[in-house]
Fold:
Amino acid sequence: MDFHYKDIVPWGRSFDEYLDMFDLSEDDLARDIVGIGDGPASFNFRMYQRGTPIVSVDPIYRFSEAEVCQRIQETYEDVIAQARQNEDKFVWTKFASVDELAEVRMQAMDEFCRDFENGKQQGRYIDASLPNLPFPDQHFDLVLSAHFLFFYSANRDLAFHLDAVRELLRIGSEVRIFPIVDVNSNPSAFLSPIIDALEKDGIACSVERVPYHFQKTGNEMLRLKLC
Ligand SMILES: C[S@@+](CC[C@H](N)C(=O)[O-])C[C@H]1O[C@@H](n2cnc3c(N)ncnc32)[C@H](O)[C@@H]1O
Structure:
């Protein structure tokens, strides 16, 4: 059975998962970072706790804490039920079981929920959507985007992906996107045309293996750099 989402769900990963998904070093963490489509992940909260705040962008940030966190609870049963039905699509080393996965993810999203209103007031959570972001050109050093582009290839077309990736490159000199497979671990059909188009624009594109390996085919990120 495949994963089926009518639209993109609010679901968030932990700080440790972000480190591995994007192969982030201590030097990377000291850079000026923006996370696009961060949703209810705990990366922003943990970076704030470390004293190196970052900016996160997501259309769900227009809602109140109560609304977002209720939506997570509503989504929970469906996401976990689909994970159980699709256990064979994952590598169960990082998490021993679906129960452990659920626990880690819910803890991350709980941290987000407790931080959200404070972070919004501090300008750490910005309500905006690709492909139009409210930042000047080259405002950030490092732009991260996880589990949105390529992942939801069934929900957004190639034109959207290309506009979105060009917008990410407009606001920062380096972009990392993870994963490059879709929700069902199939290679995204958009990857090659996007790399071809960006290389014509003079962008350095590389597909790189990362320490994070949960989806069976999902242990690579796309790194893009302005030359
Ligand atoms: C599955 S969540 C991933 C959250 C987080 N990046 C992670 O990996 O745990 C996908 C997120 O993409 C956000 N999203 C949907 N449309 C978007 C858009 N046009 N621009 C930016 N983010 C969007 C959703 O609101 C959702 O929070």
User: Anything to note?
Assistant: The longest helix spans residues 98-121. The chain has a mean pLDDT of 95. Residues 8-13, 36-39, 41, 58-60, 129-130, 146-148 surround S-adenosylmethionine (CB under 6 Å). The first strand starts at residue 33 and ends at 36.
